[in-house]
Amino acid sequence: MISEQIGLGLLRTYVAVCRQGSLSKVAAQTGRTQSALSMQMRRLEGLLERHLFQRTGRGVVPTTEGEIFLGYATRMLALGDEAAARLQQKELRGGVRIGLAEEVATAALPAALGRLHRAHPDIRLDVVVEHSMALGKLWGEDGLDIMLGPTSVVAADALATWTVALQWVCAPDHAPDPARLLDLVAFTAPCLWRRRMLEALAEAGREHRVTFTSQSVTALQAAVENGLGVGVLPPDSIRPGSMKLLKAGVPGPLAAQYGLFARDRRPPVVEAAIAVLREGLPAAPRP
Question: Which stretches make up the HTH lysR-type domain (predicted)?
Fold first, then answer.
């Protein structure tokens, strides 16, 4: 049977390539060569007799059939992790207060929290999804045990950091007029992404106005898709069919650094949450 030839290691590699969108990045993170990784993915496609990837200018993205298989692969890995955790780890009890920055609370992090909850059902999760500045305030008031947010909003050292690349995007039929104000779609102030976007435009001398604001990534995506203005989004929030990358008339791509923060004194229940959240980070953490 095909299922007997597809091990968890192959599934984990496939999921990593889909999330990173790059064979070279995954190869570097796992210490393998890109050619070996490419051969693994071709073997998987051969076993399934389906094309799972299509190449783009920025790397690879799953095909329609690849997205279907990604859903099954993610579920199989989660089930395997859950089984191992329940059998190998001691039962943990207690509460964990976790703060997630709204702009990076994508599917991977909630999925990681779901694995934690299934593995340790007696852990009480108190999860807050807020904009970055509000999270920084909560952290300063000792209202969180763990925070995933911009490194700029707290003075503490991060356990792990990663960089979020921000691309300028607009609707496929949107063509900004250089002679007119640039209409912007942005998070509600105060917001790190908004500040970076406005600072970059000011440095470039590009006149602009904010026409749509929201604290929801979903609302910003819809505003961009419907031509209300230009915005900045990370690669995993860009929908290729209804958005296009904008390169002319705007500054180059932007970036923001995020971190995983935790208190110095951590009980076992918090350590367990940190271990699971590390697995859901958008990129390999740097110690």
Answer: 6-63
